[in-house]
Predict the structure.
Amino acid sequence: MKPTRILTWHIILLVSFALIIARLGEISNSLILFYLFAKLSFTDTGYFTNNLSLEFIDQFLSISILILCTAIVILKRNKWKMLSNKVGLPLSLAIVFVLIITYGAIVAPFNPSLQFNLSIAKNLPPVSVKTLVTNSGSNSKHSNPIAEFAEFKKTVMREVVDDDYYLIDAGGAAQQLANGTSRKQNNQYSKICFLLGTDEYGRDVFSRLIYATRLSVFIGIGAVIVTLIFGVLLGFLAGYYSRSAGKILNSFTDMFLAFPAIFLVILFLSLYGNSLFNVIFVIGFASWMSLFKIVRGEVISIKSKNFIITSQQLGMNKLAILRKEIIPFLMPSITVNVIFQFANIIIAESSLSFLGLTGNHVYPTLGQMVQEGQFYIKHAWWILLFPSVTIVLILFLANKVARKLQLKFSGHKFFN
């Protein structure tokens, strides 16, 4: 009897279905919230622009991608070759990691900025179980659709501090009743587990870790795109015009390689600010030199090939030759280098965030979480440990996938 092979679509559907089952209540409530928002937006166009937020868009996109991805995989699992590929442990972990990041708003149990009451929630260790009190308010339905939407949005997407959503210790409910402090509204009690504990402000570390990983990976992907644009275009120009512009661009690149990139990054962020776009651009711009060298060397070696000469004689312009002839030939080298660059960019972004050079964004980054956790390493080690382990995991998976791709492009068997 042959052992069951684990295919790509197995991993995707397993994660997707597990998430749908575990978060079915939030998904259904979110869909109702989106319906109410769309209904109000059609009646009042100003309401759409005034109430659209990053958190709302994030929630909508995560659920939409979850449903769409699950449906596509079910329908196309036997038709798309990439879904039927056999996967090993490294690729399985990489797929799960990508899915968790993609579905982040649904995977995270709480708003990453939600602060529970400090008297109970501060620096809770991992796997801490507490009683959650949810004040549902009045049971009467709102006649005003806007008030109904606002109340439902507060239920689905909790505020940074929510007086109707707090923790109590064992026996806390009985103590409230004895003191006459219980509210008149309907209180609902449930047990919740803080899987990775909480931080010094009573925020869930697991939720913050999900969002921090997403933001760090987003910065890494954006910086890789910048690196790809500069490295490929300048490398092509330097290789194609090796006698004129090539020498100037090569000398220009050598100058950048000799200059410490960290000084360039600090100078740029000091002059132009540390907005998210600036952080992505400067990290990407400081990382294009190695890709430039690879593309330049490959272009010099292939520009005298027969298919390039034939393309020139057919009247193709330089950009068309680059897009249709050279880039497909360079894709193996570019792909492997870009994945290695992604790992280096994650290290650079984490280092800059640790130093406080990337600014404060809506969501935290991994480096920022490490920086915050260093002050509590003796009393709350989990605040520092888990983001550090996540950085190591990202680097491990990126390097493992790059090595496997390198073997595949070299003609060896891929993912034994």
